[in-house]
Amino acid sequence: MSTYPDNLKYAATHEWVRLEEDGTATVGISNHAQDALGDIVFVELPEVGATIHAKDEVAVVESVKAASDVYSPVSGEIIETNSLLEDAPETVNSVPYDDGWFYKIQISDELELDELMDADAYSDHCEDN
Amino acid sequence: MGQKTSLYQKHLDAGAKMVDFAGWDMPINYGSQIEEHNVVRNQAGIFDVSHMTVVDVSGPDAQNFLRYLLSNDVAKLDEIGRALYSGMLNETGGVVDDLIVYRMSFGYRVVVNCATRDKDLEWIRAHSKGFNAKIEEQPQLAILAVHGPEAIQKVCSILDDERAAATAELKNFRGFESRAWFIARTGYTGEKGVELILPNEEAPDVWDKLMEVDVKPVGLGARDTLRLEAGMNLYGHDMDESISPVAANMEQTISWQPQDRDFIGRAAVTTHKAEQLAGNLPILTGLVLEQRGVLREGQKVLCENGEGVITSGSFSPTLKHSIALARIPINSGACQVDIRGALTDVRIVKPNFVRFGKKVFE
Fold first, then answer.
1. Which residues of B fall within a CB distance of 8 Å from A42?
2. SS3 for B4?
3. Residue of chain B whose alpha carbon sits nearest to that of A68
4. What is the pLDDT of residues A78-122, one digit of tens each?
5. Contact B315 A67 (CB under 8 A)
6. Domains of chain A in sequence order
7. What digits encode the pLDDT tens for the residues B266-275?
């Protein structure tokens, strides 16, 4: 697994966004985040239909170490959440960029993506901290 | 850069994530602490606990000294090789540390916690004045703990015939000395297994041999969830110098008989039981949360009879829900835990959750 896939944008708070062809976006947490959290045991996902603003607390991850808030990197309406994480939260640890996605969102402002980091910038950000 | 055990390189080779633990560089996990936890419950895992403190006590007054120093009575160790779990109390009846003491051919071997090393050594030495006893720390010894249903069989498979035979017939809380080694059936996981106390320079080879027979390395993260499932206390969390053993589920470590055995803190703890029954001292009990969510140390517990606090909490990989130890008012019926602002119903159970891989509460 690539630690920082090129086709994603990243927030300083370690969430990633993938813009899909149909204008929706998929959101999850990065490999750096899952590694720092340790084994994940519960994921609390938002309600489908909820209106979210960028930087809102949108999900909670409970790991063996601690509970951590997840902040939405983009604004929009939640259209789907990943039901796999209900029974297999450890998927986030093993495949954070694929099957470990958290939610899909109909984004309201594509320009917000420009404010996020690309893979190189995010990689630097992780090394600095 | 902290202190390193003789297995430091082995941990790195096995892919350990190293952390600082009370000034030592120790493995927190080797990838997944949940997988490591499950390996101990289902097969066999090995822990490097060489950072713990081994203190040998010898001399004509060794027994008298330890009978004074400890809440449990080493006179109960009627044979060489027997062990017991005890608290070491201060004058106000608070717990200075918890420990295991083994009766040895030369006197006694006391194993205390790592984080409390300096405090404990100073305490032990200070209170040994007036006793003809020698107190000698043994930093040249490593400790390997191997636990799980397959542990004893796998350990025996790498030992010479003599040691293997003696290990195979060890009863619980007993050990034997063999040349420079000491092997005992004690542990911190609620599984069958042994602790090997051996010279540092021999530990890496033993580690390798156990890896070859499929014993898996297990880090401190899993060690904590294993001991919590087994209802075992962690010093500095479930009790400390301000907490009575009576309020820490450690009453069974106080040996009241014979009545004329004076031990440090005896007068104080004698009053603690009565105070607890009168509702002036809390109890340490178990809590379970059978829905989503994780109980964590420091969370407030709201009971009918007042407020309490979680002293140790985590997700239980064996039970697949959260469990905790909590200090709460005696005779509390229902209670709730404040989990990040949300009052959550929990059940009070005896502070023992899993033993030999099986759930032990209703």
1. 292-294, 315
2. coil
3. B340
4. 999 999 999 999 999 999 999 999 999 999 999 999 999 999 999
5. no
6. 9-111 (2.40.50.100)
7. 999 999 988 9
